């Protein structure tokens, strides 16, 4: 067991980087040389030029990213970068209810079909996100759903969508973000229309419908807020574990847990031992694990790009080195590939207005230290 240190490497790094970054602001006449601020001299050197996807494949793993039709169809550089770096893609929007369901009696598969065709023609795996969620629900849904039609709505949606892609899908996020301890239920379930109008069995029912529609697809429960050593994340890990144990005990056809992994560069409360233990508890339920939406928020980091990129890279490396040590982990997807299209520009913008930099490629599709960190994590991962 590695010797316990008072501060983790990243906490030390973050402290020194922030200290030196603020000192350099005070002595602005001196050129700010980020290399002098990195006491741990982590160089994030990645060997060779091989793509992350190929490095993952060598270890029996998959790497990919979330994409949307708008950006992928309009930017050849993004398309080329996805083709080069990824072996799997997931639609950021196009398989959610608000895209798929213009009315209660119709489906529009065109945007998602375009992405499925992109995956097929580029030899990429294609995963589905997400069949049951409390967000991205069309206005007609909220006006229509009630305790008499909710089960039928769930059955029709999942059956139609899963059958449409049967044989061409790697895995489905069947249910997304069903746990929310702030809602106060003893089982930790989020108070959603699904829970309200079907009851707590809606999760089991959703997985059974999906398995019936495509017996070959890997069926995933996906959630966030599981990663850090905080009381909230610890409580949510327990609630998710209980949910999965309950589902498995009933023979529910569930095959994996998706851990979204939306990390924060300024969050230093990551306990590798505790998280490794959580991952092995999930694996002990005979479940695989996918890191489904990883990115690193840099909203509260120093504005200097060299400092920010180093902290973001360290966050990726420290987290993924733990994650990829767990043999049940089979895939890692970043929620986007280039900073140019990250959702965090809208959802977690920096107060200073600087462009956020949470992903492996910058806004000009150039590899960043985050790319090196992810590449190194796969290079150092145990062979599957
Ligand atoms: C986000 C998209 O990236 C945004 O563009 C959209 O406006 C909202 O949804 N967890 C999830 C994803 O499971 O579906 C969310 O995607 C990000 C958080």
TrEMBL record:
Q: Which InterPro entries match?
A: GH, GH10, GH10_dom
- Which SMART domains does its entry note? Glyco_10 (SM00633)
Please report a single Pfam family linked to this protein. Answer: Glyco_hydro_10
- Give the SUPFAM superfamilies listed for this entry: (Trans)glycosidases (SSF51445)
Q: Domain GH10 spans what residues?
A: 47-377
Which reaction(s) does its UniProt entry say it catalyses? Answer: Endohydrolysis of (1->4)-beta-D-xylosidic linkages in xylans
Any one GO BP annotation for this protein? xylan catabolic process
**What keywords sit in the KW lines?**
Carbohydrate metabolism, Glycosidase, Hydrolase, Polysaccharide degradation, Signal, Xylan degradation
What EC number(s) would the UniProt record show? 3.2.1.8
The superkingdom of the source organism is: Bacteria
**Family classification:** Belongs to the glycosyl hydrolase 10 (cellulase F) family.
Tell me the protein's name.
Answer: Beta-xylanase
Q: Where does this protein come from, organism-wise?
A: Chroococcidiopsis thermalis (strain PCC 7203)
What are the top taxonomic ranks of the organism? Bacteria, Bacillati, Cyanobacteriota, Cyanophyceae, Chroococcidiopsidales
